[in-house]
Amino acid sequence: MPASQIVVDVLIDHHLDSPLNSHEIGEIVKAAASDQGFYQGQIGVRITTDSEIHQINRQHLQHDYPTDVISFDYRSEDYQTENQSEKRIEGELIVSVETADQQASEVGWSCKNELALYLVHGTLHVCGMDDQEPEARLEMRRAEQRVLKRVGIHLPENVSPDGGFR
Q1: Which of 18, 120, 147, 161 is 20 to 30 A from 137 via CA?
Q2: In a domain, 166, yes or no
Q3: What digits encode the pLDDT tens for the residues 116-148?
Q4: Does residue 162 fall inside a structural domain?
């Protein structure tokens, strides 16, 4: 596996305490991208609040509610080559630390782990994965679990392999 050449630019809103630092965020994003065969490119990550992600969701996706993670895929097919090491990833993730904190307590694990899950999930979307259909959703859940395990995070016992609650 080639070394990652992905640049991860991290912005944590100044008034927030993020359970993950910029280096950890970068490593998680790179692990998710490399799981899908991407080793070059650039991803911007913003850690923010529910109110900020709500505004972004409304402005860019016409969804009038806060959410956990929004991903924007800026890749161009022109960057794709048959050589896996030359596939480029270009995108942006917006992640709500407030939603991560709330959901983490419901699931029974740390906000840090929930935030990592959102980073993995969003990166997989930027890599081209989808979770709209049941089979694709199961494939994404498996990829999430693989990447989380790779970065040392295991799902709580009350989460089934398909990502749902038992």
Answers
A1: 18
A2: no
A3: 999 999 999 999 999 999 999 999 999 999 999
A4: no
Of the candidates 55, 57, 32, the one whose C-alpha atom is nearest the C-alpha of residue 153 is: 32
Identity at 133, one-letter amino acid code? E
Host domain of residue 111: 5-150
Cα-Cα-Cα-Cα torsion 75, 135, 98, 105, nearest 10 degrees, comes to: -150
Name the residue among 142, 87, 90 with its Cα closest to residue 120: 142
Helix residue ranges, H only, the chain: 22-35, 50-61, 97-107, 111-126, 134-150
Cβ(75)–Cβ(38) under 8 Å?
no
Give the span between the Cα atoms of 38 and 127, in whole angstroms. 8
pTM as predicted:
0.89
64 within domain boundaries: yes
What CATH number is attached to the domain comprising 126? 3.40.390.30
Amino acid (one-letter) located at 136: A
Let me know: does 86 contact 40? Beta carbons within 8 Å. Answer: yes
